[in-house]
Structure formats: C-alpha cells, structure tokens
Amino acid sequence: MAEMFPRIRACGDSMLSVELADHIDDGVNRRIIALFDELNRNPVAGIEEMAPTYRSLSVIYDPAIIRGGALADALQKRLQALSVTDTASRCFSVPVVYGGAVGIDLDELARMKDMTTVELVNLHASVEYRVYMIGFAPGFAYLGGLPDVLHTPRLAAPRQRIEASAIGIGGKQASINSVPGPSGWRFIGRTPVRLFDPHRTPPFLLKAGDRIRFRPIGEAEAARLDTMVAAGQTVLEPEVA
C-alpha cells in the first residue's frame, strides 16, 4: 500500500515529524523550508525547536503548553495555507582547491567518468547547488544540484578520517565537510572556509535553503585564505538575490 503524504507523526511525547514525501526532491525540500520559515515568522505557542530535513520538518514542543494533537492540527492548517514563493535566499561563492592531499579521489573519479580532471573540475564548478539540510555532524552541508554525470556511489569501505572543509560526492549529492571524521564519500578538493566554528556567532556558516557555487582557486590563494581564517578574519560573505 502506497504511503500517503503529507502526514504528521508523533516521535515520542514532545516531538512531531511533518513528512511531505519519502524521497529527495527539490520541490518537496522547498515546501519544508517554506513551512520552517512560516513557523519562525508566525510561531505556534509551545514550539521550542525545529529542524528541516530533505523531506520532513522535526518540531520539538513543550507538552505542558500545547498537546501533540492540538499542535498537529495547527501544523496541518499551516500546510494547507502554505505558499511557496521564490523568496530571497543567500548565495555563497565558495573557493575550492581541487585535488591535492584532501581531494584524493579527483584523478580516479575523472578516469571513471572518462574525462580529464580539468573537465571534471569545470563541470563541478559550473552549476549552482542548494543546501537541502544541515546534519550528520555540526554544520555538515548536504547539497543538491550535482550534475547527473558526476553521480557516483559511495565507497564500499569508509575511510577513517577525512579533513574538515573537504568537498565530497556521494551518490547524487554533493557535500562540504564541517569537522574531521570518517566518511565513505569521494573527495575532490577542499575549501579554506570553515563551515563550523564554535567561537563564531552563529557557529554554522550555512543553513537549509542557501545556494552555493564553487570557485576554483590555486594553492597560493588557498594559503592566503588559510592564514586569514586562522587569524579569525571573515573570508566569505553571502550575497542575497
């Protein structure tokens, strides 16, 4: 029997999950973020925290203020009245050094795709990506918009450590690592930009709905930006369009 959407499910005694689909889809994600924005602009009393994902919105609430059933009814009404418009969103031009010690899969990936590394880099940097969600690790950005020809399965055996700011490909998604850690994604470069900095306000650079374009740079510019970042200077500002 096919699943019916939208649906609102209880997750324990103080969280609801608003689910719009069971797959990754740009239109579904836009509706999730539109609902998230609407509830931030016009909050429902009792909601304490929300987290947008690819296709759902997690809503944490205080049951002493609002019961789960009443909140579900309120969320259903917001969904029915929801309007998804092309509102202003932030766009970042993220500098990337392709290849090197962090971009360890660039050469092999180019061979797999029967193209040169230059062709792969140009293709990867030719499109606009969208931040579908932040998750897995603090500030980790899951990106949609990867060209079809670059879709590549993850590694069968994850590597034990990949550096922060590594630029990855996993399946039909792209990513930017936020902290060092294990990963089965394939990595083609790095950015000097830090997505997560606990001493920065806010600590996360990106949020769901942001747009990204990758800008290839050389080692000299990367070293200059690394020095600026280490000194606490801002090296990336968003554009609003």
Automatic annotation (TrEMBL):
<feature type="domain" description="Carboxyltransferase">
    <location>
        <begin position="6"/>
        <end position="206"/>
    </location>
</feature>
<dbReference type="InterPro" id="IPR029000">
    <property type="entry name" value="Cyclophilin-like_dom_sf"/>
</dbReference>
<keyword id="KW-0378">Hydrolase</keyword>
<keyword id="KW-0547">Nucleotide-binding</keyword>
<dbReference type="GO" id="GO:0016787">
    <property type="term" value="F:hydrolase activity"/>
</dbReference>
<protein>
    <recommendedName>
        <fullName>Carboxyltransferase domain-containing protein</fullName>
    </recommendedName>
</protein>
<dbReference type="InterPro" id="IPR010016">
    <property type="entry name" value="PxpB"/>
</dbReference>
<dbReference type="InterPro" id="IPR003833">
    <property type="entry name" value="CT_C_D"/>
</dbReference>
<dbReference type="GO" id="GO:0005524">
    <property type="term" value="F:ATP binding"/>
</dbReference>
<dbReference type="Pfam" id="PF02682">
    <property type="entry name" value="CT_C_D"/>
</dbReference>
<keyword id="KW-0067">ATP-binding</keyword>
